[in-house]
Amino acid sequence: MRKKTGKVIFSVSSFFLLCLVIFFSMEMAMAQNKSSTIPINVGVVLDMDELLGKMGLSCISMALSDFYNSDHGSKYKTRVVLHTRDSKRDVVGAAAAALDLLKNVEVEAIIATSPSLSSFRNPYFVRATQNDSSQVETISSIIQSFGWRQVVPIYIDNQFGEGIIPFLADALEKINARIPYRSVISEFVTDDQIKSELLKLMNMQTRVFVVHMPNSLGSRLFMAAKELDMMSEDFVWIITDAMTNQLNSIDYSVVESMQGVIGVKPYVPRNKKAENFTTRWKLKFRQENPTIINAELDVYGLWAYDSATALAMAVEKSKTSGASFRKQKISGNTTDLEAFGVSKDGPKLLKAILNTTSKGLSGDFQIVDGQLQSPAYQIINVIGTGAKGIGFWTRKNGLVKKLNSRSRYSISKENFGSIIWPGDTNSVPKGWVPTNGKKLKIGVPVKDGFTEFVKVTRDFTTNRTTVTGYCIAVFDAVMEALPYYVPYEYVPFAAPDGKSAGSYNDLVYQVFLGNFDVVVGDTTIVSNRSQFVDFTLPYTESGVTMMVPIKDDNRDNAWVFLKPLTWELWLTSFCSFVFIGFVIWLLEHRVNEDFRGPPWHQVGMMFWFSFSTMVFAQKERIVSNLARFVLIIWFLVVLILTSSYTASLTSMLTVEKLQPTVTDVKELVKNKEYVGYQPGSFVVGLLRKMNFDEDRLKAYNTPDECVELLSKGSANGGIAAVFDEIPYVKLFLANYCSKFTTIGPTYKTDGFGFAFPIGSPLVPDVSRAVLNVTEGEKMVQIERAWFGESTCSDSSTSLSSNSLGLDSFWGLFIIALVAAILALLIFLGKFIHEHWHIIRQSNLSFHERTRILARKFDGKDYSSHTFKKSELRDALGDSAHDMDCSRSPHGNLSMLPSPRKTGPPSPSNSSQTEQSYHFPGEEGASPLREENVAVSAQESVTELVVDINAGH
């Protein structure tokens, strides 16, 4: 196996993995001997020329010796016999050694190191160390706690180095951090090539690096970084457990170059058993390897010890017999792999290993999902000659200062101890630098009109370009508000002739192409542009609105009096007047002489009375309570309607210049009117979505050109309306508010913003600075300096027609309608009740009954108090006259008619004094006499006079 593979033995995070690879396709090669113990052959393939290989082999040998010499292990019937092979730092050599062990030794299991072998690929591969992917969550939590947004991984170019990258990328994506660049270093790289790669990293803005490589290459990397002054302020270095676990074995000169580095490693609790073993191991290792100085035992050795112990326990537990292999019967040509035998003890040994748990030197040893259970991770800080623990990470609690904490899951940086960062500083690095000494190239648009926003002036004598304007002033103020200095220069987006080199979309796309570092100007934040760049927060009011000319001909319009109400309201009001007039006539016709007479007289009275209520000029008296009830409600409606009409008409006549020529976008589309827009703006796309014809769109470059087009009008070669963003419209109306106004609705956009490359670390800081500037007095000063003081009233309020619509009054009409219908129902119910005997006549046809009821309705209701009072007054007047003529000096009343008893008149009197009218079918009914009531009233008065005189 190649050198880097040999290093992987017993690794957790750096892919130095100790894998118990159990091959159950083998049979026992050695026959069971006659001794009391059963030897079980196990192969070991390691890189014997590396420190990790030597350490692993010594720990495995000591583990088996300690186990079988213990009280518990000495009773076992099985004994693991090791057969070692050297991988010779090559994968091919490792594979050849494994084949040799399988074919010639017929081992039951092989202990090897490989980052690619796992139980996910084959259940017979058991990982006795940590998967390197388990440490990426610890690394991502550190990055998230300090708010770093970009990370560059630096890793070795082999299977070990590449194995962690997919897991790291996924973990960073979950915390909204990204990898802008991957630094891949060959395992055969020279020192000059390492420096060349580091110089490339120095030219980037990102300053957070995650290093994943073995000690031998990592030491060279940090020595080169120290020489290039990359171990100074603003740099962040995080190392994986591939280097952190072996910090004690690194030379002092290398550790000195790593000051301020943050590292992660599996946490191994301290115990006396592990300390005693470490002392014994050092003594034995020095005796076996006298040329290796200052060798230190690390977690890989502890895992090797625990793995060998677990294997010995599993062999005994599975009752492996050590029987010889069973050869497969294969005919024809076969390969060496197909010729291998099969062991019957394989499944039992696999099950025993998966169920084995023990208290090892490294902590609890337990296989979960085919690999060693993930422990807590310790976070260290390289300081001085060693490392200091600054915190822990667990799946349950996240970042904590102490283990066994009952706190909730947290990623707060407050859970770290004191950290010394590169450059011997306590200040947390930003994780990026703005420009590395280079000036940012700020792209600005070139335009002819609305130069108050951006104005590019070129001095052909000196060939110098000056950029000014509102947007430029805001950007300068924002950059001054940053907590650090960022040099930059403005570069116009212009063609060789000085004209604009393209649209605003083209300008923003230059940032994506890398031609500009930032775009500053009147650049609107829209969705299609955000696919290529990251925008800061907006610094202007957002939205697109429509601007139209103002009509000023209301005062000269002969029909202006019709405009206060919409035609729907006019029609509803007219119908309501007619309906209320009809209801009042219906309620008053039988009891009020003012509502009687010839048909045309009654029709005229109906219209006259209803419309006279509009100005409360009605003269007719109302005698019915139901009619009075209806009129009370109707007077309220009329009062509100007339008051609103008067107010609206007054507004139209006195503020007539606020009336727009167009009030609706649909009207423009329907009438195929011409509309205007600024060239190069995204507004033209918005107009297409609003179904405007392409040939009905006209571009304008300057405010003066816009005024000319609007003044001409759509019918005369101009335009009927302008669609533009609110900042442009406000600037335009500041000078032309007496001629133009805005009309709703406002189409939503996000205003002007500064465009940066996607993922730029400047965006959050610039956005915060934008808020500081826009919320302060500085923004007011900038607006006043470039836009001046407007003498016009606020024209941004969207205007629409001042006509009053039905939607404002339908509630009143509903109330009046309900009152009128209720009165009609009461009236009709009473009328039908009084004439129910007519309706019940079965010998009459429907037509005859209807005619009789119509004549009944057309007649007077003599039972009404109004007719009773009038006839009583007439009777009193006639009786008084008769009494004066017939009174004698003695008060003799013999000349008065005798009192008349109540009851129907006699037929003789009836025939002489009255003429009877009978309707068909009214047999037995009293005849209808028009003078009947008057006669009865006169007789009643006569009786009253007699009674009064009799009292004297």
Automatic annotation (TrEMBL):
Main location: membrane
Disulfide cross-links: C737-C792
Gene3D superfamilies recorded: 1.10.287.70, 3.40.50.2300, Periplasmic binding protein-like II (3.40.190.10)
Keyword Signal: yes
Molecular-function annotations in GO: ligand-gated monoatomic ion channel activity
GO CC annotations, alphabetized: membrane
Role of this protein: Glutamate-gated receptor that probably acts as a non-selective cation channel. May be involved in light-signal transduction and calcium homeostasis via the regulation of calcium influx into cells.
UniProt name for this protein: Glutamate receptor
